[in-house]
């Protein structure tokens, strides 16, 4: 119903090469919105869960607080080449042309921990394709784990042990 307006994807485990099954259930539909619950399974294992919200867009008031950052043109920046710059990286990175202004992961030119984990980059699909909702959702997920941007060394990306704000289950 309408256009996609929100998408949350949670990776419960790695998505392997090969067959998968997607199960999408409309949780609630009303006059202008529709909420979906989605799972991606491989074999008997759930690899990914997601929620998606669609809505009929109506004329309404809006405001944008963020502005476009001051950055050099994409063509003036080198393309990220993980195999050459950072060693072998995730295969999915080959699907994008990424040109970092700042905040590249594992930046060996920065000897100390960065003050923040902000990444500023130009990114587009490679091979090029129209920027539709599927492409935009995919591009929104190209960011590397923030710990690998803050620290110039490879570290585990998952949460450390015993850091949950919840008491242990008894």
User: Gap between N and C termini, in Å?
Assistant: 43 Å
The low-confidence runs, each spanning 5 or more residues with pLDDT under 50, are: none
In the sheet with the most strands, the strands line up as 1-4-3-2
Shape: globular
Given helix and strand content, the structural type is mainly beta
Mean pLDDT: 86
* Helix content range: under 10%
How would you describe this protein?
The structure is a single chain. The chain is mainly beta and 170 residues long. It is built from three helices and six strands. It has helices at 82-85, 133-139, 146-150; strands at 3-11, 21-29, 33-42, 45-55, 96-102, 120-125. A hairpin with a 3-residue loop joins β2 (21-29) and β3.
Secondary-structure topology with pairs:
Elements: E1 3-11, E2 21-29, E3 33-42, E4 45-55, H1 82-85, E5 96-102, E6 120-125, H2 133-139, H3 146-150
Antiparallel strand pairs: 1-4, 2-3, 3-4, 5-6
The gist of it:
The protein has helices at residues 82-85, 133-139, 146-150, and strands at 3-11, 21-29, 33-42, 45-55, 96-102, 120-125. The chain is mainly β and 170 residues long.
Please give a handful of descriptors for the protein shown.
single chain, 170 residues, mainly beta, two-stranded antiparallel ribbon
